[in-house]
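One chain shown below:
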Amino acid sequence: MASRKLICLLDPKQWTLPDSLIQAGWRPCYLDSLDQARALINPQKPCVGIVLFDERWVNGLNQALEVLLQESAGCIEWVGLVNGERGQNDPACRLIARYCCDYHTLPVEPLRLAASLGHVDGMARLRRRSFLEEEVSPTEGTIVGESAAMRNVYRQIRKVALTDATVLLEGESGTGKELVAQAIHRGSLRSEGPFIAVNCGAIPINLIQSELFGHERGSFTGAHSRHKGHIETASGGTIFLDEIGDLHLEVQVNLLRFLQEKVITRVGGVKQIPVDVRVIAATNKNLIEEVQAERFREDLYYRLCILNLKLPPLRERREDIELLAHYYFRKYRSMATSKVQGFTPKAMKQMLAYDWPGNIRELKNRVQRALVMCEQRTLGPRDLNLEMHVGSQEVATLADARAETDLRVLLAALNSNGNNIMKTAKALGISRVTLYRMLDKYNVSVRPDSAQK
């Protein structure tokens, strides 16, 4: 079992990690000072930490502790421990609300803490992913994935970025080809130059020549001034030609000439203009088949395919689905009309079983739609519109039906009792311990400032 480091900012005489969590692979590192914790802050290796908000931190070193929590944001995902007697106005509550992913009252339930640490560790791994490959850190988009297939893609990106050769990206629609092109550009010597993306399939045939190569004034009706094309505009940088397989044969001839001679001629012009630009092309078609069908020039194919990267579809990297789902949930959470907390276990199960023909783009769109349409506190299969796709062939068991009913009743009770744990447990006729177990089971979190113990 893989060992996972757990920073424990507390005195082990006050509290120690339960044996069951140590057996589960957690390796506690007990620290007795803020300086010791600060020395472990490493943005390239985000990890999980536990901090005990006792009298020393809260009353004695409150400001110093907050500075540490601020400095470690994004590097250490904190879980707080507090005495159950503290009130809502206690300084510990403010620090927990601002800097902790979760919190527990003493004495801690090992099962609930194990679930909490597992969730927080997932967030730390997500942050760690962005540092797996230093060259791959898009600014306007993020390549998310830790699967073996994606690690191979990262290695290829790093190698390809160091050269200036033409690259052909192949993959189904929605697999993130433009993000990969951006990553290659940023890791190259041309990173300070422009990155121009062109969708070859979206430009009308009567305009594609002008859009790519530019035109001179008066070259056709409406050409009132000289116009630089996308290739010339990208000089010194990278041009990304998406859906290259949709390019008309007549334009393929001019593109081939440009790739061979590194010069262009504007529409209506005679002057040859040298252009220094790297070309990255992408397609969701099988260009070999297109060549055989005489819809794509063979000589152009080999000019484009000097370096070739194949991007895996989402169904071939299923271990990344949960990571992607949580990433887009956090990214678009502000779109939710209610305080949505996460996904139900059944929703995650169906996401993992679904084949995602639209790949990452489809997953992102489904999560966005679910956040807008959801009327509960967790996203279910119906919110993601997956019931018809996955559940139509499954017969719900009694356990599934009972779980769905339990979750609806739990959320309704929390809502009607203002998230007050004690009142909710009483209304449901269960103990607080049982209520906490239900919260863990259904991945429902209660905000610290609203949970009155």
